[in-house]
Design brief:
The protein has eight helices and seven strands; from the N terminus they run βαβαβαβαβααβααβ. The chain is an alpha/beta fold. It has one domain: Rossmann fold. A seven-stranded parallel β-sheet has the order 3-2-1-4-5-6-7, with helices on both faces. The longest helix is centred in the middle third of the chain and has 28 residues. The protein is globular and about 45 Å long.
Length: 245
């Protein structure tokens, strides 16, 4: 798919999402970013988008709230007359020990990491088909893509991200042939802000390519999955070989 003149809708547009948004804008996409709390970050990304000569907007939206997602999609189509790409990056990564895990913990993790990807596609599907074809890129995790949990205290997160892989396959089947749906499973891309220096070095050491990837590697993967015309239902690991250890 030629991205020139297309419209992309991105949930979770902070940090890596900002780089993805700018990459799509440089390809000629108009980009709509959603944010829940970080309005300032979304507006910075919007300035970056407009600096490329493209257009965009930032929309406040809780990606786990059905009515808000429906409204944000409708506003996007009303503003730009079309919708071609959905990138589901909204996520929540938190330690939740299994002993004492509450129903609220479980439901919050599934809502932010799995249900959000379902809601955007449900409300975007008609618009994605309307102009002859669209693309959906969901986000899972390299641990889920490896087929086994590697770390304790992340059971709800792992279950949700494993669910994203199944959801991606189901959406690809349901929306074919007009909409291609794929997932990206990031590995060590950007160190969490609270990670200690020795921990950052430790992750690089057990990654076969010997380093953290950087947000641009995710942007490259998103562009590939948007531009391809014959890949659907796949999960692409972008982890520097981290899953091999």
């Amino acid at each position: 798919m030629d991205l020139g003149g297309k419209v992309a809708f991105i949930t979770g547009g902070a940090r890596i999402g900002a780089t993805v948004a700018a990459a799509l804008a440089r390809r000629g996409c108009r980009v709509v970013l959603t944010y829940r709390n970080s309005r300032a970050a979304a507006e910075r990304t919007l300035r970056d988008i407009r600096s490329t000569g493209s257009d965009g907007r930032a929309v406040r939206c809780d990606a786990t709230a059905n009515s808000q997602v429906r409204r944000a999609i409708a506003e996007t189509v009303a503003a730009f007359g079309r919708l071609d790409i959905v990138v589901n990056m909204a996520s929540e990564y938190e330690r939740t020990p299994y002993r004492g895990l509450s129903t609220a913990d479980w439901e919050r993790n599934l809502a932010s990491n799995l249900t959000s990807a379902h809601l955007t596609v449900v409300h975007a599907a008609r618009a994605l088909r309307a102009k002859g074809g669209g693309r959906v890129v969901n986000f899972t995790d390299w641990v889920a893509a490896s087929g086994r949990p590697r770390y304790k205290d992340f059971a709800p997160y792992y279950a949700a991200k494993a669910g994203v892989i199944g959801l991606t396959q189901a959406q690809a089947l349901e929306l074919a042939p007009h909409v291609l749906v794929n997932a990206i499973a990031p590995g060590p891309i950007l160190p969490p802000t609270k990670l200690k220096n020795e921990e950052v070095r430790g992750v690089a050491k057990v990654t076969p390519l010997g380093r953290w990837g950087g947000a641009e590697e995710i942007a490259k993967a998103v562009l590939f999955l948007c531009e391809t015309d014959f890949v659907t239902g796949e999960c692409l690991r972008v982890d520097g070989g981290r899953h091999l250890f």
